[in-house]
Design brief:
11 helices, alpha/beta, D-Maltodextrin-Binding Protein, domain 2, 11 strands, 2 domains, six-stranded mixed sheet, five-stranded mixed sheet
């Protein structure tokens, strides 16, 4: 009799576990963005999650919460140490940002702290100047920097984010020293500093820069990628302008969960989220906002994270 009761209990537990997996999600989900409202990550996160409540997606809405500060460190530290690993608190990741920061140290996370779900975009870094700037090419920027060592000020979203990595590569390739100024409010604040004339130039996301150029506020002088962007066909890459700058600073964005999240939840998200990103309404809004999409599955993101970590270790060695 006792054996029968024990067997029945185990069977019921198995059924309960299956039911729990099938019912996820049962309530709305939060997604943490480590940058302020209005920047590229926030802007895109709100677009790619807008269909989450559809029956052919998660069936529950995703609400964005912003935890900006220290180039993303504030939000990712919180996510790694305080977020419940239950599938109801997701986070947007930015690579190379959080991987480079973990390599340099002083943070409570590494790639092993998180489980990737899917990637939605790949946003190259670009060099921007105000619309009325005398600079019209990277050659103009480099010439001024050589004549005025350490005095050419330019903004970015923080230390050891994609912007900073592009800045380090430009300085090394040109053999110059410029004054990189990380802002507290992420890419949006960095762009405002350029437009307001607080700095002479800036490194920013292509998507933010595209919208600012469309508004007549900035000029985009070069793209830190291996190929020209379809959004900016007339803007040459850094390499086309004689600067040995590759695609190490390209900002991959996607969704992750904390380590320890139940595997059945990870599997459900990994199966559903890439399809959610592929929704035609999402693609249309991303296109209109100058935001390049690059959808990758969980397995593809794992490979990308590992490859970027190796590249960044080599790039940041000695810094």
């Amino acid at each position: 009799m006792k054996k029968l009761i024990a067997s029945a209990a185990i069977a019921l537990m198995g059924l309960a576990g299956t039911a729990m997996a099938e019912e996820y999600p049962e309530r709305p989900i939060l997604m943490m963005v480590s940058y302020g409202a209005g920047g590229a990550t926030d802007f895109q996160a709100r677009i790619v999650t807008m269909t989450a409540g559809n029956e052919d997606a998660l069936g529950m809405p995703i609400a964005i919460i912003n935890k900006p500060g220290a180039g993303g460190r504030v939000g990712w530290n919180w996510f790694a140490t305080q977020a419940d690993p239950d599938g109801y608190t997701l986070a947007a990741y930015n690579v190379p940002h959080f991987i480079a920061q973990s390599i340099k140290g002083g943070v409570s996370y590494s790639a092993d702290s998180f489980e990737p779900i899917a990637n939605w975009g790949a946003d190259p870094a670009v060099f921007v100047v105000a619309a009325d700037s005398p600079f019209n090419s990277m050659a103009d920027v480099v010439a001024h920097a050589k004549e005025n060592p350490g005095k050419l000020t330019f903004s970015g979203a923080g230390l050891f984010v994609g912007h900073h990595i592009a800045a380090l590569q430009i300085e090394k390739a040109a053999g110059v020293k410029m004054a990189y100024i990380p802002t507290k409010g992420g890419g949006a604040a960095a762009m405002k500093a350029v437009i307001a004339g607080e700095v002479m130039g800036g490194i920013n996301n292509l998507s933010d820069a595209f919208r600012a150029q469309e508004a007549g506020s900035v000029k985009i002088l070069g793209v830190a990628d291996l190929h020209r962007s379809d959004f900016l066909p007339d803007v040459p890459t850094m390499q086309e302008q004689g600067l040995d700058v590759d695609n190490s600073s390209v900002n991959f964005r996607g969704v992750m969960v904390p380590k320890g999240t139940p595997q059945e939840v990870i599997d459900e998200l990994a199966a559903t989220v890439p399809e959610m990103f592929a929704n035609p309404r999402v693609a249309k809004k991303m296109q209109a906002g100058g935001s390049p999409m690059h959808i990758m599955t969980r397995d593809e993101v794992k490979e990308m994270w590992a490859a970027r970590e190796q590249t960044l270790k080599e790039l940041l060695a000695g810094l």
